[in-house]
Design a protein that fits this description.
5-stranded antiparallel β-sheet
Length: 194
């Protein structure tokens, strides 16, 4: 009888220790996994707003260094891949918030259009848009293209940014019909040497 009681207590203690270890590891992963998200949200904290114009759940979001990505991680092992987020569109910006149990330690962030620039990007093989903000120039948030285009349908400022990014890509690709009317700076006058 005493032996059975001792075995039961030992089993409960081991189970409790394993559960505490698992929860400690899960907390650490959740806390370090959102470091770049928290860096963004500290620069752009949530503002008190009224009701959003529109709200939609997005797929995964990547927060990491901007630039070319040759695959999902692209050498940037410190990039954060977060589960689905809620994207709320307001007149003056986007509100991003992680939902579900993962929301713990990931505060909401409000990204004003006045500080935002958008450019086409890829996350793995999926088309996305990279959102860069003026106060956090060394980081970028990748959102799926359908979410950004959906948001552009509700916010004219975001739609203008997407059009500007597409125009820039066409000029970069050498599309002469687009680039003919564009001039950068003053043109130099060349004197004849005669």
């Amino acid at each position: 009888m005493v032996r059975e009681l001792f075995d039961t207590i030992a089993t409960m203690m081991m189970s409790g220790l394993m559960l505490a270890f698992f929860l400690g590891v899960a907390y650490r992963i959740m806390h370090t996994g959102g470091a770049k998200w928290r860096q963004f949200s500290s620069a752009y904290p949530r503002r008190v707003h009224g009701n959003p114009i529109a709200r939609k759940a997005s797929g995964a979001v990547r927060v990491g260094a901007p630039g070319r990505r040759w695959g999902v991680y692209a050498g940037d092992l410190k990039a954060n891949h977060l589960p689905p987020v809620w994207v709320s569109v307001y007149d003056d910006g986007l509100l991003l918030s992680v939902y579900g149990i993962i929301h713990y330690g990931q505060p909401d962030m409000f990204l004003p259009f006045e500080d935002m620039s958008v450019r086409p990007a890829k996350m793995g093989l999926v088309d996305c848009y990279g959102v860069q903000m003026r106060r956090v120039p060394d980081l970028e948030i990748l959102l799926y293209d359908d979410i950004i285009e959906w948001g552009a349908g509700h916010a004219p400022a975001l739609e203008a940014m997407i059009k500007r990014a597409a125009l820039g890509m066409e000029i970069f690709a050498g599309n002469a019909s687009v680039a003919e009317g564009v001039t950068f700076g003053r043109r130099r006058r060349v004197r004849d040497s005669q």
